Amino acid sequence: MLVKLVLVPEDVSSVGLADALVWSQSQAHRSLKRLEQGRLVTVVQSPSGRSPGVRRLNRRAAFELLLGGVPYVFPVEPGRLVAGIPTAGSAPVLAHHFRADPEPLVWPHPEGEVRGMAIEPLHPGVPELVRTDRPLYDLLALIDALRVGRARERKLAENALKERLL
Question: What are the CA-CA distances from residue 96 to residues 44, 77, 90, 161 (Å)?
């Protein structure tokens, strides 16, 4: 949810976010409430007080969380060889910086066109979502580079995320 908020207008409703993420409305609502509790999202009320307000993403805090927290909260080790969707340094957003890896990193997906070492995505729905949402794909692949990448991949991912978030 946090990553998707980077890509949507501030006035998007929880219903709009649920639709974009193919989640239930209750899942989206609970997720937004957790982000508000963590001060990653604030709700700015309209001057008239009649509308529910506009959600504002604290982009600096989101960047700091992704950079410093995700590798520790969502550690990952590459696993078995499977068909999937390239991620981390193997994804298009970073792959042009590196020589082709004989064993790319992939999110397992039955319709994946690349055979590589499986890593678990941040959410089970990620592989399906990114097939139709390239900006989301790029962000999630960059985050995976922070989780599993070598030093050069992590630095490139950090710079690319900084550019997109800040």
Answer: 40, 23, 9, 17
Two structure tokens written together for 19? 């639709």
The domain spans of the chain are: 2-57, 75-165
pTM for the predicted model, two decimal places: 0.90
Name the token pair of 49.
Answer: 């007080």
b/e string for 140-150 if b means 16 or more Cβ within 10 A?
Answer: bbbbbbbbbbe
Rounded-to-integer distance, Cα 2 and Cα 53, Å: 18
For residue 111, what are the contacts with CB-CB under 8 A and spacing of at least 6?
83, 131
pLDDT of 34-89, one tens digit each? 999 999 998 887 666 666 667 889 999 999 999 999 999 999 999 999 999 999 99
User: pLDDT digit string (tens) for 107-120?
Assistant: 999 999 999 999 99
Q: Give the integer Cα–Cα distance in Å for 57 and 34.
A: 13
